[in-house]
Design goal:
The complex is a heterodimer of chains A (882) and B (183).
Chain A (H helix, E strand, L loop, with lengths): L2 E4 L2 E4 L6 H5 L25 E7 L18 E3 L4 E2 L10 E3 L3 H15 L16 H9 L18 E2 L4 E3 L9 H9 L5 E4 L6 E4 L12 H5 L5 E3 L12 E6 L8 E7 L2 E7 L12 H5 L14 E4 L2 E4 L2 H18 L5 E5 L5 H15 L4 E2 L11 H7 L14 E6 L3 H4 L1 H12 L3 E6 L11 E4 L5 H14 L8 E3 L2 H5 L4 H8 L3 H13 L2 E6 L1 H9 L1 H14 L8 E4 L6 H6 L6 E2 L3 E2 L7 H7 L2 E5 L3 H4 L8 E6 L4 H4 L3 E4 L8 E4 L4 E5 L12 H11 L9 H11 L8 H7 L15 H7 L9 E2 L3 H4 L5 E3 L16 E5 L23 E4 L1 H7 L6 E6 L6 E8 L7 E5 L12 E7 L2
Parallel strand pairs in A: 1-6, 17-18, 17-27, 19-20, 19-23, 20-21, 22-33, 23-24, 27-28, 28-29, 34-38, 35-37
Antiparallel strand pairs in A: 1-2, 3-4, 3-5, 3-6, 7-8, 8-11, 9-10, 12-13, 13-14, 15-16, 15-29, 25-26, 30-31, 31-32, 34-39, 35-38, 36-37, 36-39
Chain B lengths: L1 H19 L22 E3 L14 H5 L5 E7 L11 E9 L8 H5 L5 E3 L14 E2 L1 H4 L36 H8 L1
Antiparallel strand pairs in B: 1-4, 2-3, 3-5
Classes of the chains: A alpha/beta (882), B alpha+beta (183).
Chain lengths: 882, 183
């Protein structure tokens, strides 16, 4: 740990620290443009020039030479050094306020301004611009150049549908290029030309096609890259920032909603080192227009004759009560069922299940509908969820990460960034899936198993555990039949799974011997788990026998599709589980049964009709949603719900982190928060409920759900430290400026709940063997269809964001080149996919022949134009369309 | 008593003098008092010589306003629908004259000299709503009737700078000469 002296103050910093970083804790500000703490230094802008000296050493004694005051004598380097690229050494002295340094900074600013236009009044960066700030602090104050003498270029060239480039404003710091290169792993930007003609350009087609392109807007230290969505809608200092949580996927990225005039003007990432660092994917950033869509429901409606007609809340509630009471007395609670989407908050879900279990007396509850139908693994999460304090971005040497059947690039984009970062820091990232995903780029070892043979893959690892005596059984109750069940050799299992046996052995050894181990499993793996009970038992055995659970940086993470899928499990939106993840004896109807057996259906924030064309109104149906969805069109009562920005609450992310989000906007006309609607219905039915606010509901959750004890809004609000918005032009206390400057806070927001293995250190866990279902009636030469997901889709939320529409890809089918050859299909050709199902379904798509799917498998994203509701794992026939 | 008489005479003298001097009051509203040149009355939004609006919708006036009386919503200029030079213009510009304290900070903050507090001081309204004056009311008439906005400009390439160039600054500066002159 070298000691360094900066402007007379001494500080001890870890070896390898850069001078700019060492100065921060001392409050010494070294201005930077090209340096960013999340990226490798390049020393391009020269703004961080400082005087650097090292202690003069006595060659004889190898000790610093002291002057008459007893202080070490310093050999000052003859020229200024770049503070961002200089690593501190023992005894180093740094001066940042001397006239040479001040003059150098002034000159750098003046030089940058020679070709920077006088655009501040119309520039969207104005007000949070590091160049503005540094010019005020360190600049010359007066210009020696007239406007005309500046370098000019064509203004505002679209770099992509989302991002506008102004080449005049670019100071050539390459932050955007380096971000795409180092962090996003999608190197699609580059410099073209030289000297003053140097400009940012994209080599991509379609241009700048990255899931993370919006982050370049934040880190651009000038207004060269600006958002085309936010373009000229407000000045940044006019926005009110509200701390919120992104609701597009299960990562739970922290966001700031920039609001003006009760509308969302922009969304920027809010720093949370434990969740999203300072990044946000393009979906989270640009898809918010649905909150103001004209198509939003603004008033309750009831079905009169054949049409839905708008009514008051009073009328709608009376109507509901008048219909529900006879239904309760006639058919009893058994015929009343509730479907809740897993996009709403914990408060909504809790009251929803309370309404059913306590007021209506029914266990017919489920959330596994639509895209969440494959949500699985709740026992694994409950017992072995990644330990409290786990931070994917901090993982490094000594940690093995096994990712099973997941595609985080498209489904949990920021998790992909964090896994790639962990791999870069030395974590042993191992990826196994039935196809190749973007995550494989960062993996140390990757496996492509055969879809349907996931169990063989895990059995192979377990067999290798037993063979190598790698298992740790201190906390395991191993069933006697376990070892007997695994009756094949590793090589046989590997052959079945279609992977290399040696590599599988190595994986097993690496995982077992690693200090920490984390398993992430994604949607494709959960699909397999639902079809194959042996798989969950095998995964359970793998976790228990590896001993990687119950501690920080150990355990499993289930990558669920939606922002609060985890909360839906926690709150007990399940036919066989109550709030707090307790199993129930008298299970109710599951989502599938409800659609055929229920007589009364209450649907909250879900759209089963879109996923199932055969869906019908079972007799009486209440729907509450943002939009008049296909389900709502069939309903008897439609209630307008408030969007996530219009109310407060909590979401639980895929790492079991409960995060609070603020209310940013006024609700649209008569819309109400989901929990509020549930409460009014309960009161209408005679329940004595009294929850004045969402935090009162959360207070009850803290009492009722043991995992959520101590998670009141007050506590969560403290952890979600809200930064002030940008109030003054050039202010340096505001967050976006801080992000751009790279002055980051170690802010952790949200609280993780502890798993059984953590709360009960003595608990022992069963390890069982379940024999896999016999497979073999499927001909090997029939292609298997894997269903993938596109980040930007044709969903209901995204269709209102015009700006991202050009970025939504066209659906195509990925085909292995060998298969393509066999079927005589060339890249880009039109192919016909016939499903072996009744009634027959035919899909016509363009072929994309590349290396991401193995032979015998085709992959189609099922959320694009014309590809809705594709069944995962369908056996299909692929022919050239002629 | 004598002193009292002197005072009375003095007073009457003053009265007599004022009787013969011209009156200080104006017969408002028939006669209007001229205001000093720097008088700060109702705002106006100025135009360039070619009729384009000087306002570029930067909201700096709104940011400077201590009374929060100004509301600006910007938008992007199109080549076939141009309001102002450069990329940006004010789509909405409103001033609440009941809030305005006529301090002139907006004028000072304006980078293009678009907003000027002019000499109109007759600001009375029958209702509060009409005290909010809109861009149409604020904008001065174009120099010629065909120079209104929005319009298609013949040479949009010349209009790209939002901030007009400094007068007399057309020649590039020779830094070497400048440095010599300084010495």
């Amino acid at each position: 740990m070298p000691n360094v002296t900066i402007d007379g103050q001494t500080i001890q910093v870890p070896a390898g620290t850069l001078v700019v970083e060492a100065a921060k804790p001392l409050g010494v500000h070294i201005p930077v443009f090209c340096y960013h703490p999340k990226m490798q230094p390049v020393g391009m802008c020269r703004m961080c020039l400082v005087e650097v000296g090292t202690p003069r050493m006595d060659p004889a004694t190898k000790q610093p030479v002291l002057d008459e005051n007893g202080a070490p004598m310093i050999n000052w380097m003859p020229k200024l050094q770049a503070g961002c690229a200089t690593i501190v050494s023992e005894g180093m002295a740094i001066r940042t306020t001397t006239p040479t340094v001040v003059d150098a900074r002034r000159s750098v600013i003046e030089f940058l301004l020679t070709s920077h236009p006088l655009d501040c009044p119309i520039c969207d960066k104005g007000g949070e611009c590091p160049l503005q700030d540094h010019t005020l602090h360190y600049g010359p104050g007066k210009s020696r150049f007239y406007v005309e003498s500046k370098f000019h270029n064509e203004k505002s060239v679209p770099l992509s549908p989302l991002i506008m480039l102004d080449r005049e404003r670019c100071i050539q710091c390459a932050r955007c290029i380096r971000f795409q290169d180092e962090i996003a792993g999608e190197p699609v930007l580059g410099f073209a030309d030289r000297g003053r003609g140097l400009e940012i350009t994209t080599f991509d087609d379609p241009p700048f096609n990255s899931n993370f392109s919006g982050n370049t807007i934040d880190i651009c230290p000038v207004g060269a890259l600006t958002s085309r969505d936010f373009r000229f809608t407000a000045r940044v200092f006019e926005l009110n920032d509200h701390a919120s949580v992104c609701q597009h996927c299960s990562v739970g990225c922290n966001i700031n909603i920039g609001e003006r005039d009760n509308t969302i003007k922009r969304i920027t990432p809010r720093e949370n080192e434990a969740v999203n660092e300072i990044w946000l994917c393009d979906k989270g950033r640009f898809v918010h227009h649905f909150a103001h869509a004209e198509e939003r429901l603004t008033t309750p409606m009831i079905r009169a004759d054949t049409d839905l007609k708008p009514v008051s809340w009073y009328e709608a509630l009376t109507f509901i009560a008048n219909r529900l009471r006879p239904a309760l007395s006639e058919g009893g609670a058994k015929t009343i069922a509730g479907l809740a989407g897993d996009r709403v908050s914990n408060e909504d879900l809790y009251l929803f299940q309370k309404l059913f279990r306590e007021v209506l007396g029914s266990n017919n509850l489920d959330h596994r509908i639509g895209w969440s139908q494959w949500n699985a693994g709740q026992e694994l999460v409950k017992n072995f969820g990644a330990g409290v304090g786990t931070n994917l971005g901090e993982l490094g040497k000594g940690t093995t990460i096994l990712v099973l059947g997941a595609d985080p690039q498209n489904e949990q984009p920021v998790i992909r960034l964090r896994l790639a970062k962990a791999a870069k820091q030395g974590a042993n990232l191992m990826v196994a899936n039935g196809r190749v995903t973007k995550l494989n780029d960062s993996a140390k070892q990757s496996f492509v198993y055969k879809y349907g043979e996931e169990a063989s893959f895990l059995f192979g690892i377990l067999r290798a555990f037993l063979d190598g005596q790698l298992e740790k059984s201190e906390r395991a109750n191993v069933d006697a039949n376990f070892a007997l069940g695994l009756n094949l050799s590793v090589a046989d299992y590997a052959e079945r799974a279609g992977v290399n046996a040696d590599a599988l052995q190595q994986l097993a050894a690496n995982f077992a011997l690693s200090e920490n181990g984390i398993i992430l499993f994604g949607r494709e793996f959960m699909f397999a788990m639902q079809n194959e009970p042996a798989l969950e038992a095998a995964l359970n055995a793998l976790v228990v026998l590896s001993g990687h659970f119950g501690n920080k940086n150990n355990g499993v993470i289930a990558l669920y599709p939606h922002n609060n899928s985890m909360g839906a499990f926690d709150m007990g939106i399940l036919p066989n589980g109550s709030a707090g993840r307790n199993a129930l004896q008298d299970a109710g109807m599951s989502a599938k049964d409800m659609l055929t057996k229920a007589k009364v259906l209450y649907v909250m924030a879900a759209d089963p009709a879109r996923d199932d064309p055969k869906f019908r109104n079972p007799g009486f149906m209440i729907v509450q949603d943002l939009f008049l969805t296909e389900t709502a069109q069939k309903a008897d009562v439609v209630l307008p719900a408030a969007s996530w920005a219009e109310r407060d609450g909590t979401f639980t992310n895929t790492e079991r982190r409960v995060q609070y989000f603020q209310r940013s906007l006024e609700p649209m006309q008569n819309a109400r928060a989901d929990w509020e609607i549930v409460q009014t219905i309960a009161k209408q039915l005679g329940a004595q409920w009294n929850y004045p606010s969402a935090s009162d509901v959360m207070n009850e959750i803290t009492r009722d759900v043991p995992q959520y004890a101590k998670m009141s809004h007050e506590r969560l609000r403290v952890t979600a430290r809200r930064r002030s918005s940008v109030q003054t032009v050039g202010g340096d206390s505001a967050e976006p400026v801080q992000i751009a400057l790279g002055e980051l806070f170690g802010d952790m927001s949200g609280v993780q709940w502890a798993t059984v293995s953590e709360t009960n250190a003595d608990a022992k866990f069963e390890v069982k063997f379940i024999a896999p279902k016999a497979d073999g009636n499927v001909a090997a030469n029939v292609p298997y269809m894997a269903v993938t997901r596109s980040l930007l889709d044709r969903g209901s939320a995204i269709q209102f964001s015009q700006i991202v529409q050009p970025r939504v890809p066209n659906a195509n089918v990925e085909i292995n080149s060998h298969d393509a050859e066999e079927w005589n299909i060339a890249d880009g050709e039109r192919v016909k996919i016939t499903f072996e199902m009744k009634p027959p379904r035919v899909l016509e798509l363009n072929a994309q022949v590349d290396g991401t799917v193995p032979q015998g498998t085709i992959a189609v994203a099922n959320n694009l134009q014309g590809t809705e509701n594709l069944p995962m794992g369908a056996r299909v026939k692929v022919t050239k369309n002629v | 008593m004598f002193e009292g008489l002197v005072a009375l005479v003095k007073g009457m003298l003053t009265t007599g003098r004022e009787m013969t001097s011209p009156p200080v009051t104006y017969q408002y509203p028939e006669v209007k008092k001229p205001v000093p040149p720097r008088f700060r009355g109702r705002h106006e939004l100025k135009r360039h010589e070619n009729g384009l609006e000087k306002c570029i919708g930067c909201s700096l006036c709104a940011a400077a306003c201590p009374a929060d009386a100004i509301y600006v919503v910007p938008a992007a200029n199109q080549d076939n629908e141009r309001y102002s030079p450069g990329e940006r213009y004010a789509a909405t510009y409103e001033i609440n004259l009941l809030r305005c304290i006529f301090c002139g900070f907006c004028e000072e903050a304006c980078p293009t000299g678009a907003i000027v507090l002019e000499h109109d001081y007759e600001l009375a309204y029958y209702d509060r709503r009409s005290a909010i004056i809109t861009k149409e009311q604020l904008l001065v008439a174009p120099p010629k009737p065909n120079m209104g906005t929005p319009r298609v400009m013949p040479d949009p390439g010349n209009l790209y700078a939002a901030i007009p160039p400094i007068k007399g600054g057309t020649e590039p500066v020779n830094i070497v000469e400048m440095a010599k002159a300084k010495q």
